[in-house]
Amino acid sequence: MNLDQTAAIVGSLWGTAVGDALGLPWEGLSPRSQRQRIPQVQGHHLILGRGMMSDDTEQSCLVAQALILSGGESGRFSAALALRLKLWFLGLPAGVGKATALGCFRLWLGFNPDCSGVFSAGNGPAMRSPILGVCYGHNLDQLRDLVRRSTRLTHTDPQAEWGALAVAIAAHLAASQPQATAPQLWQQLQQLLQQALASTAPSATLNQFWQLLDRLPLALSQDLTPRQFAADLGLSRGVSGYINHTLPLALYSWLCYPQDYAQAVTTVIHLGGDTDTTAAIVGGIVGAAVGVEGIPEPWRSGLWEWPRSGSWITRLGHRLGRSLATNSPLAPEPLFWPALIPRNLIFLVIVLAHGFLRLGWWLVHCLPR
Ligand SMILES: [Mg+2]
């Protein structure tokens, strides 16, 4: 059954948040190290069986607020997102990527939003783009423009932009055709992406991008598991934050389980590496197909967050849905921002404690005796 657009938006935002929180405790570990600690990820493991969201979800929420404020008008969107990124950066978000941090810093220095980004092909723009696809996938020109503006605030390497666009189109297809099979989804993704990139000047980098994506249908036809596909791409020790590593494995995990949130997200987490971001991307795509109800309830209630709580995320999604339905800008969803300061401090302490526990585990189990 197709969800209405608001339900797809709420599902995508929740999917991003839960994937991010589930993947965060395993970030930076190889699949082998992950298995040594836990045979299978089946729930939250950050603190006392609860999970918290990181920069991936926060940036998706900033994009949603910028869309509400701008009504999708690209100049206003760009300005609204730039201002939100600047304010968000003041809160010293733990785990923010280097290029995103530099982009925010350059915005504070007064750089124009069109040229504040740095030349990087990291996965920052892709982590915040599923929501763009769910909202504007029906209008490819507008989607391309919004993805470009969102990307260039922090990243200027065209590969970062193409990867973010592919993720946005995937989320649009998930929301609009939740019952489609993997080959159908791949075919349409390829078609829409070709259309969106038709005016892009041919280059060796673009050829490399297409060659990379061409490996997806091949892997599907060979019935490879995501783990086998990762090994095929030389990523058996984990998926890095380079977009050309993140993108094929996020898309493949979605294509293997387009209607199964739990499988898709745990599968990509089990591939190791940048697990909070890969799971946030896959979660944002599959969440748009299955809606909130398709995300396991214990994973939703296991989110430990405030002031961007689960109910706040739901309200944010509903407000964005209203803005799209009326095709007009609205005031942003109110957020009790002073609470972000203690929240971010607590989050930082928990992440640091997690790092020390990990180090302790490694000293006990891995040092030669
Ligand atoms: Mg993160």
Automatic annotation (TrEMBL):
Gene Ontology molecular functions: metal ion binding
Note describing how the cofactor binds: Binds 2 magnesium ions per subunit.
Binding site for Mg(2+): S54, D55, D56, D274, D276, T277
Signal peptide: none
Highest taxon in the source lineage: Bacteria
Classification via InterPro entries: ADP-ribosylglycohydrolase, Ribosyl_crysJ1, Ribosyl_crysJ1_sf
SUPFAM superfamilies xref list: ADP-ribosylglycohydrolase
Cofactor (UniProt): Mg(2+)
Transmembrane segments: 345-364
Alphabetic keyword roster: Magnesium, Membrane, Metal-binding, Transmembrane, Transmembrane helix
PANTHER family: ADP-RIBOSYLGLYCOHYDROLASE, ADP-RIBOSYLGLYCOHYDROLASE-RELATED
Designated name of the protein: ADP-ribosylglycohydrolase
